[in-house]
Amino acid sequence: MASPISVYNSNALDTHISSTSRESLKMELLADVSLLPGEDRIIDKDIIYICPFNGAVKGKVLITNYRLYFKSSDADVAVMLDVPLGAISRVEKMGGASSRGENSYGLDITCKDMRNLRFALKQEGHSRRDIFELLFKYAFPLSHSLPLFAYVTQEKYEESGWNIYKPMEEFRRQGLPNNKWRITFINKNYELCDTYPTVLAVPFKSKDEDLRRVAAFRSRGRIPVLSWIHRENQAVIVRCSQPLVGMSGKRNKDDERYLDMIREANDTPKLTIYDARPNVNAVANKATGGGYEGDEYQNAELIFLDIQNIHVMRESLKKLKDIVYPNVEESHWLSSLESTHWLEHVKLVLSGAIQVADKVSSGNSVVVHCSDGWDRTAQLTSLAMLMLDSHYRTLRGFQVLIEKEWISFGHKFASRIGHGDKNHADQDRSPIFVQFIDCVWQMTKQFPTAFEFNERLLLTILDHLYSCRFGTFLYNCENARDQHEVRSKAVSLWSLVNSKMDIYLNPFYTPESGRVLYPVASMRHLELWVTYYIRWNPRIQQQQQSPVEQRYKELLALRDEYLKKLEELQLSDSSPSSRLANSSTPNTSSTSSTPSQQYTHLQTPL
Amino acid sequence: MEFSDHIKTANVEDVVLRQPLHPPSRGTVCITGHHLLFSDREEGSSRQVLLLLRNIDAIEKRISGSSGTITIKCKDLRVLHLDIPGMEQCLNIAHSIETLSCLDSVSEMYPFFYRPPDLSLHNQWGLSSPEKHYSQIKELHDKWRLSTVNSDYSLCPSYPPAVIVPKSTDDDLLKKVAKFRQGGRFPVLCYYHRKNGMVIMRSSQPLTGANRKRCREDEHLLQAMIDGSDKGYIIDTRSSQQAQQARMTGGGFESKSSYSHWKRLHRQMERGKALQESLIKLVEACGDESHNMDRWLSKLENSKWLSHVQTALSTAGLLAECVERDGHSVLVHGSEGTDSTLLISTLAQLIMDPCCRTLEGFLALLEREWVQAGHPFQQRCAHSAYSHARLQQESPVFLLMLDCVWQVWRQFPLALGFSEALLLRLANEVYASNYGTFLCNSHQERCALGVTENTHCLFQALLRPMERDYYSNPLYEPTELAIWPSVHPQSLQLWRGFFLRWTEHTRQLEEAQEEIRNMVIEWGKLALSDALSMNT
């Protein structure tokens, strides 16, 4: 019915105006594109965008070393595209010089962010050759010995996002080291484990030789180390990779003793090991030298969480894309959605994390692993930590969580996303991090007052997961990041985010430090994240997004003013204000008009 | 017969109540003419559960040995269990509930007995009326008039005494038109679009029958409606095939040859039994406690409820498009004109008219378009999704309307002045209520029983200061623009607040909503006090 103006650029990709490059463009149509400092025009061209929602749209395309920008020349159909080249996974030629049919000759671009783009050109004089070659080159710079844009950009921010996460500070915040856990720098040269960070927390009783021997028995040396400790009950979340049990059922006394040290640290009778994989997959891993902890691990119980591997997740999201882009499935939407299994996977990840969080909050330490401990393990530990620790639910705390559990612990962003790499069919690619952000979104929907950040932050993070504009998600591990000097040569995404925090804030955020969040991981309560997965379709988009954002901004201002007033009151009168207490707890007794309350509170004369 | 004749056992002690979201509790059950009361036995605790018997849709009893369990399934979708000691007591209680929960006589229903101290029967009853509606829209007075031709309900038993019709049509003409429309529901005005002067009228189907009968007066009335305009639209809520078939049973549609200035648009909307069965399937899927929830989305789809929501919203969107975008007047009808017709005229007004989006405006809209327009509440809402009784005239059209409004509310979180809590409250009240508002099937029936004199008005009660606060949307920001909902299946959601109401998750969300409301109100107070202190 309603067809709003078709503007498909992601509002989260903010740009700065660079006046010099703007002058050099000298094209009226493209004059309003604001380029980033360090962003340069590569080529521009008259082109036809085959828009799945408006049909063929004539206009001009501009390729820079950062983005593909298109604007329609026809004033009636205002179509604009602003796509970071990093979001492109595949560029192909469509049709040939002799193809028949209108607009059959051009380019077909597959994107990593749930859309495809098709452009048509005139069928004469190899009109697409230059744009195809340049696009191919700049979309996949690493395949052409070119630097990623993160190394080219000249963006400057007041605060450096690289300072948001300091491992020692974060350990101290958790109350570490203490008499049960010590901080070790054994990995400072990445010799113990080349995919781990340099600073690790391990049982106080463990010696460095123990760690080396355990490393020999864990896949890729990813030994069990502490991710999080519960301040009151001292239960911990420990992460690692699978033990190298193999077909012959090898044992390693050091590994067994090491896990028992973890259990002893808070003196619980049993250590729970969560293996994220389905049981059969864990067994199958024995054939390639891996496996799982058997009965030889005394005082430990092993629970499989049934979460599928990266290949299953990739295929699931691919199926989802098939039913939402370019056309949304209309007649059997729900059963089609069901057949992608995407929500079911989200459910399993969430319910795994709930089990971890529940175990820890009831005082039992847990060990979490999958095969290598960098995909499902990262999902589970970070989600459980988000449920347990309200600090991670703040805007800055969430950045710390991602830096810590994902980036520093070697989630292979480069392999999973394929930054700057032309090999679109690489079997290593998988939307594991997207799935994690989806789980976070589900939690924010279920607890609208528990998170300091809003949906826009999540969208921004996912946009820049691909964009290659920031150094944050580049490379597979800290070791590689050090080698490529990311932190000195590229800008952190958190620099951008923290330079204008207010647009990422949730006005209704109510800090509740002790609260453990248990989301409901039932299919009935999960929703498809439409505003992310189907955001390119103008007909599905949530309506009136901007007035809502405007209103939320006003509310934020009102809230800040309120809090300021409150502080003044508290200063002038040292007694704690009762008004704050009122505002942060639901004042249910003030009304007796909801039916449920009516039945339970009302005393009617009979 | 007295109520007491149905109550063999009024009190049972030592009963265990199990209900969602609460731990089991032990106490006393008491049955009265209209209520089931459970009071906690614990000393010092005053926890009570007071349940209108009318709210009970179905009960199941299971006797084992000397005790029994009664499972109570409510129309608000709550399921309670009572473990009752003593077989006879259990059977007596069950019998009382079965009989008293579906009394037929309206004047014996609870609204006639409900006398809260803070309400007086002398208070004003209702918010709106055709007279008031007419007097409020001055722009109408040129070409439209208020007719009292139905003051004795002789033309149309389901219409109110006064209706708005074109000025150029006299009452004699209306009498003839009424004979040509099913149930006498001749076309009347229900909405005037101030922006362009176009109107929505509604009626029932014309009685053209198999031999294509014509009625000049009916044609004249329709022509008068679009006086000065080149054409009008008729939105028929049946498929054209259904409309054709209706001729075999005396009904029909406005043919092109007789109504040359009218363009007919057919949109098939599910009604009656099909809608009720859809609700039953949906509620069954929602209540499925089995762990194997793999097929949840398929079950949801198979219930077809969301596709009914989609059809209703898109047909309402079509209606609003005709009026707002295309600039033409529209006549809406299906067959009887008491169900899907009202559904889409209500939703279209919500889409176009900012006045209908305030708390008061929305309640007035419901009063005009459902209560006064003669939606047969008593027939449609006698039973809900759990009932084992043979379906008669039940159909959850009003609930479907509330669901559609909720979808709009979700898509436009700022545009409506009322909250989800209001929609939930209305969804309960329409099935079982302390108030008289949703009693009977028509204005005429309500007058005959003295409903306005002997019961309290729900809409008035909802506008008392405390209720008004509670049911207001704290984020409300009025907009003059039309709000066009997206009707793609991807944009529609299950109304979890209603259908999964009795789950932990929904309660958490309700609490969070409440928290947000209190927060915003608190901040707003500060801004207000600042503004005041600036002025002084």
TrEMBL record, chain A:
Chain residue ranges for the region called Disordered: 570-606
Residues of the Tyrosine specific protein phosphatases domain: 340-386
InterPro entries the UniProt entry points to: GRAM (IPR004182), Myotubularin (IPR030564), Myotubularin-like_Pase_dom (IPR010569), PH-like_dom_sf (IPR011993), Prot-tyrosine_phosphatase-like (IPR029021), Tyr_Pase_AS (IPR016130), Tyr_Pase_cat (IPR003595), Tyr_Pase_dom (IPR000387)
GO molecular function: phosphatidylinositol-3,5-bisphosphate 3-phosphatase activity; phosphatidylinositol-3-phosphate phosphatase activity; phosphoprotein phosphatase activity
Binding positions for substrate per the UniProt entry: N309, I310, C370, S371, D372, G373, W374, D375, R376
Record's bilayer topology term: Peripheral membrane protein
Protein name in UniProt: Myotubularin
Organism: Collichthys lucidus (Big head croaker)
TrEMBL record, chain B:
A Pfam family per the record: PH-GRAM_MTMR6-like
GO biological process, one term: negative regulation of autophagy
Molecular function terms from GO: protein phosphatase binding
Residue span(s) of domain Myotubularin phosphatase: 124-499
Entry superkingdom: Eukaryota
A single cellular component GO annotation: cytoplasm
Protein family per UniProt: Belongs to the protein-tyrosine phosphatase family. Non-receptor class myotubularin subfamily.
This protein's name: Myotubularin-related protein 9
Source organism of the structure: Collichthys lucidus
